């Protein structure tokens, strides 16, 4: 806002005297003079401007608007900070929960691998040869039973076809 009303000190000021202006542009001259007076006052650091000029109303409007915008921006930044803090805390809690689940899974995996190694060692030992022979016998018995069931099934199919004729 102040950048709108103040001039840069490096810029030369153009002043118009009342004699240079035409009589029809007296309103423009008045506005120009007001603008120059405001520029001088704002560049000198004083804010003593009479409250009757229309420029003061505009200036106060822009100041109030700027204050509202900066307050709103501050509130949004504070909200964003709180949101980021909440999101960080939530992510931290999630990470802790996942780390504990990972640790539990690692322990379960270690137990299962240990059981697997023990089972494999048990098969390879003295019992392993007995188990292997037993499995072979069971396999042979299952094959003979399977063949017997196939034969029986074939006989039943033949009987059914004779009865249906």
Please provide a written account of the structure.
The chain folds into three domains: 1-49; 55-124; 132-165. The chain has four helices and no strands. It has helices at 2-5, 26-44, 54-124, 126-164. By secondary structure, the chain is an all-alpha fold.
Summed up:
The chain is mostly helical and 165 residues long. It is 81% helix and 0% strand.
Defining traits:
about 160 residues, 3 domains, elongated, 4 helices
The biggest beta sheet is recorded as: none
Tally of strands: 0
**Number of domain units:** 3
What percent of residues are in strands?
A: under 5%
Helix/strand/pairing class, anyone? mainly alpha
Helix share, percent? over 70%
The CA-CA distance between the termini, in Å, is 109 Å
Which stretches of 5+ consecutive residues score pLDDT under 50? 1-8, 15-23, 46-52
- Quote the average pLDDT: 76
Q: Nearest-angstrom radius of gyration?
A: 49 Å
Count of individual helical segments: 4
Reading the helices and strands in chain order gives HHHH
Morphology call: elongated
Layout of strands and helices, then pairs:
Layout: H1 2-5, H2 26-44, H3 54-124, H4 126-164
